[in-house]
């Protein structure tokens, strides 16, 4: 998980190295790492193997400086459905597929320059990296686009840039679109650290409506990377996820239940990743990716134990007691009731409502 040393860059603004062509598809698989006081994992599933529009999730940690980056990228299939790039003697991929993978490469390059070359750790530098990398993509990926709703290489981004020091964990959430960053705390559970780029602000209403996004990363329109930051003075879990994970449960609380139920069954980070994969595939109707790091827990056993009481609490709160699917009125009433009791803590760390 340590990024290898790189040669020093010459003075002046660094420019991302543009790939000759987008990377080819990898086989979806869970991944994990386990160090003292740090456990990490990623989960990546595709509805159509080789054609999933989520890029492989990013989990990078620089051991010498105790800095890390989590990120997920969900190519926007509706506005980016036009073909963009064909593998040699292989399948053709959409603008959304290509855009998500270019954004991942841009974010990883930005983080490497931050920790290895002391580049300013700012939103502006991340936006610069994204714009330059998207602009350097092969021209054919951006020429066959038409219509006001179309986008060139569109993708969401949800990232958490974090660092560990003597005072705890400082974090900065960076995002565009409707992928999300979260904190999972032993005493209070799941907290959203981002606010979706949609006109609908209520998370339960978003589950019911799936509103259109008002801001996504793309090559042919302006976009904004939002930012929000804070600090935890105690052990915490940070994670990022695309809507394939949180968009197909009945309430936001159910996403926490899924995280904790699989954690309590796992013996290590690798099994937690596998259990999360097994749990989400039957539920979701989309690609689903997640990147997670647990910080400050002595080992995985300590992590699991820290959340035992919290999981028992959400179980007693009725957040898993879903009414029968054929009783829509009972389901809606249960959603409203459990959301109202859960919402205050869930939204406690969110950025303010935009005008």
Task: Please tell me about this protein's structure.
This is Serine/threonine protein phosphatase. Residues 1-31 are annotated as: Disordered. Residues 1-22 have a biased composition (Pro residues). The protein is an alpha+beta fold and 355 residues long. The protein has one domain (31-346): Phosphatase 2c, domain 1. It is 30% helix and 23% strand. It contains nine helices and 13 strands. It has helices spanning 95-117, 123-135, 203-209, 243-246, 252-265, 269-280, 300-306, 308-316, 328-346, and strands at 31-35, 38-45, 58-62, 67-72, 83-86, 92-94, 157-165, 168-176, 180-185, 189-192, 226-232, 236-241, 288-295. The strands form three sheets. A six-stranded antiparallel sheet has the order 1-2-13-12-9-10. Strands 3-4-7-8-11 form a five-stranded antiparallel sheet, with helices on one face. Strand 1 (31-35) and strand 2 (38-45) form a beta hairpin. Helix 1 (95-117) packs across helix 2. The longest helix has 23 residues, at 95-117. The N and C termini lie far apart (40 Å). The model is unreliable at 2-27 (pLDDT under 50).
What key phrases describe this protein's structure?
355 residues, alpha+beta, Phosphatase 2c, domain 1, 6-stranded antiparallel β-sheet, 5-stranded antiparallel β-sheet, 9 helices, 30% helix, globular, disordered N terminus, Serine/threonine protein phosphatase, PPM-type-like_dom_sf
Number of separate helices: 9
- CATH architecture, by name, is 4-Layer Sandwich
Give the biggest sheet: 6 strands, antiparallel
CATH superfamily: PPM-type phosphatase domain
Percent of sequence in beta strands: 15-25%
Tell me the number of structural domains: 1
Number of strands: 13
Rounded radius of gyration (Å): 20 Å
The CATH class name reads Alpha Beta
InterPro entries: PPM-type-like_dom_sf (IPR036457)
Protein name: Serine/threonine protein phosphatase
Organism: Streptomyces triticagri
Biased composition (Pro residues): 1-22
